[in-house]
Structure to design on (113 residues):
């Protein structure tokens, strides 16, 4: 059983998403003006893009996934634009930190020959 506040937010997001997909115009107000900062959806998509660069196909797939995640989380009303920017910054900082502390960083990054 969901808490009353959680139930309200879940119903709102379902309605907002369904209305947007159906092409019904409505005001987009992320979580009724209570959005989470940063967007971890975007941060994780950026880390996936940075981490999985083995082939052009995988890189393209992850670039499209990142772009769609950024667009969808804002268009569907899940996050404000500033949440997306903060998610990108958090993802980039997390990736940079992980690369810095990884003992295998030279071995895991493929170098062009």
């Amino acid at each position: 059983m969901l808490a009353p506040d959680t139930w309200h937010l879940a119903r709102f997001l379902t309605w907002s998403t369904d209305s947007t997909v159906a092409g019904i115009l409505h005001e987009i107000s992320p979580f009724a003006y209570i959005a989470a900062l940063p967007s971890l959806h975007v941060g994780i998509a950026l880390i996936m893009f940075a981490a999985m660069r083995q082939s052009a196909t995988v890189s393209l797939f992850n670039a499209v996934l990142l772009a769609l995640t950024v667009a969808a989380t804002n268009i569907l009303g899940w996050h404000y634009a500033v949440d997306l920017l903060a998610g990108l910054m958090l993802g980039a900082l997390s990736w940079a930190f992980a690369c810095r502390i990884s003992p295998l960083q030279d071995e895991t990054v493929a170098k062009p020959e």
